[in-house]
Amino acid sequence: MKILIISGGSIDETWGKKWVADYKPDYCIAADSGLVMADKFGLKVDLLLGDYDSVDKKIFDKYNKNTKTITYPCEKDYTDTHLALKKAIEKIKESEAGKTDNTDDEIAIIGATGTRYDHAFTNIFILEETLAAGIRCAIYDKNNKIYLADKSFEIKKDKQFGDYLSFAPMTPEVEISLAGVKYTLDRYTLRQGESICQSNEITEMIAKVEIFTGKLVVFETRD
Asked: Does the reported pTM lie above 0.85?
């Protein structure tokens, strides 16, 4: 199952419309004002949640009639994006019942970045919930794909989002090796506060990232 969460941050409309059409989600969650962009994209919304303080009433009424809706108070412990992510994880767990192969399950989030750096920063950290659940999840915008990793993985050059790779430690330290890239590393201990892993480039057909300890934030980016 492929679940799309549309949050209320900045989305380049031209990019977003094409990206969503290519992604072809199986299930769509609109988090509060993310409904505005979902409406512009002409998406079928399966779940709508939030306090709706920033959603035009006409748009809300249009979807509320035929969409499962959860209303939260304005003052709450979790952001709308975090609540949407929790619901996405629940939905995937429900769909996994009885399955033997769950490798195609994933969550994509758009509208999770923008002018509010506090929201964008928090949205990266809440991805730990999907990591703990063993579900692939990434934040996308016009220039970035952001995700977490705690196990070794590979990136195919022809599948890369953008031209650059950057890494930052999610935990105080991450021991990593990098191969197939311009700047290689061999069991290097990357510590929070270091910038050595910014703006790398894939030079081979496949980039290999080995993680020995810790958790990593991965940025596939374009200018």
From this structure: yes
